[in-house]
UniProtKB/TrEMBL annotation:
Classification lineage: Eukaryota, Sar, Stramenopiles, Oomycota, Peronosporomycetes
Cell location: Nucleus
Gene name for this UniProt entry: AlNc14C32G2957
Organism: Albugo laibachii Nc14
Signal peptide feature range: none
InterPro entries membership: Helix_hairpin_bin_sf (IPR029012), Isy1 (IPR009360), Isy1_sf (IPR037200)
Annotated protein name in UniProt: PremRNAsplicing factor ISY1 putative
Nucleus among keywords: yes
Family in the record: Belongs to the ISY1 family.
Keywords assigned by UniProt, alphabetized: Nucleus
Pfam families: Isy1
Any one Gene Ontology BP term: generation of catalytic spliceosome for second transesterification step
PANTHER family on file: PRE-MRNA-SPLICING FACTOR ISY1
Length: 208
């Protein structure tokens, strides 16, 4: 009888321990959104977790030997973590805590080696990805001097504005060209018509 009681007590202790471990697992898990956290202590703890995750991923992305899709995924994840960290910093302010965005600016957010594009940041090897470096290259300066408006107008002749379209000599030349083109067209038509007439006569003679 005593043996059965010991077994029952042992099972109860194991079940209680498992239940406590299960509860601690969810208790220590970071909420999906910062608004679900209601204590300043937990909010600061979760912010520190995110900062460590960002630092670790920035260290990983320095490896230029990684494949392109891995580097892009790491860079996307770092940007997502930075936005998430800012959400937790705002939640800390709401809970009465300090403004870490002002009191503890992160090096990776102000580093000159980090390039920015519309709020999106490129870290480490991501800066050398195809199409990324071109976004930040300055246009090459040319030694060609820009011409002034006066210089541009100096090379414009009256023909540009059509002032000579009604010139008498031009009109006469146009008439001569039109007349010559008309004469050529008439001769071509007569030659074709004459050939057809001869062909018809030959067909009639053969039929007779």
């Amino acid at each position: 009888m005593a043996r059965n009681e010991e077994k029952a007590q042992s099972l109860l202790n194991r079940w209680t321990s498992m239940k406590q471990d299960f509860a601690n697992t969810f208790k220590n898990r970071r909420p999906y959104t910062a608004s679900l956290c209601h204590t300043l202590r937990d909010a600061e703890k979760f912010r520190r977790q995110i900062v460590r995750e960002i630092s670790r991923k920035i260290s990983d992305i320095q490896n230029a030997g990684s494949s392109e899709h891995i580097i892009r995924d790491l860079n996307d994840e770092i940007n997502r973590k930075i936005r998430l960290k800012r959400h937790w910093e705002l939640r800390i302010i709401e809970l009465g805590g300090p403004d870490y965005g002002k009191s503890q600016p992160q090096v990776y957010e102000s580093d000159d080696d980090v390039v920015h594009a519309g709020g999106y940041k490129y870290f480490g090897a991501a800066k050398d990805l195809p199409g990324v470096r071109e976004l930040f290259e300055k246009p090459k300066e040319t030694n060609e001097k820009k011409r002034s408006v006066d210089e541009l107008y100096a090379n414009i002749s009256p023909d540009y504005y059509g002032f000579r379209d009604d010139d008498a000599e031009l009109l006469e030349e146009e008439k001569l060209v039109e007349k010559a083109q008309l004469q050529v067209a008439i001769e071509e038509w007569e030659a074709q018509h004459s050939g057809r007439m001869q062909g018809n006569r030959a067909s009639v003679l053969c039929a007779q």
